Structure formats: structure tokens, C-alpha cells
Amino acid sequence: MPPSIDTRRATNVTLPVHLLTEARALGLNISQACEQGLATALAARRRENWLAENGDAIQSWNEHVETHGLPLAEYRAF
After folding, report:
1. Which residue in 70, 56, 5 sits closest to 35, CA to CA?
2. Residues 6+ positions from 26 with CB-CB distance below 8 Å
3. Is the predicted pLDDT of residue 1 greater than 60, yes or no?
4. Does residue 53 fall inside a structural domain?
């Protein structure tokens, strides 16, 4: 059975002192902030990977559209 989204595991994270000090002073939940930052970084990396994997197909489609126009363009009402 795959792990639940709510399953947590403790880990060590090394942070610059000035960021940690300011986060504590502002009352930020450091674990939550790290989790949000990691989720953002993962989404960006997934996007980069997807673009790298599909870049040739995207380029090929763009070239096709430039040469032949959009499929069914003659039926567009706008």
C-alpha cells in the first residue's frame, strides 16, 4: 500500500543562521515553510523534466502549425 500523504518523517535541514533567526522572530513554522519550499522546487523540477522530455515534440508541433496553420482553423468563430 502506498504511503499516505499525511505520513511524515523527521529529517535534518541545515539553514543559514540569518534565515533561521528571522523566521523564528517572525513566528514562522519552519517545518511548514521548508515543506512549501520543497513542494515548489519539486514542481519546478517536474516542469523542467517534462519540458526536456517533450521539447522535441513541442518544437515539431510548433513547426507544423507555422507551416500548415492550426487544424480546423477554418471552423473557428473568433
Report:
1. 5
2. none
3. no
4. yes
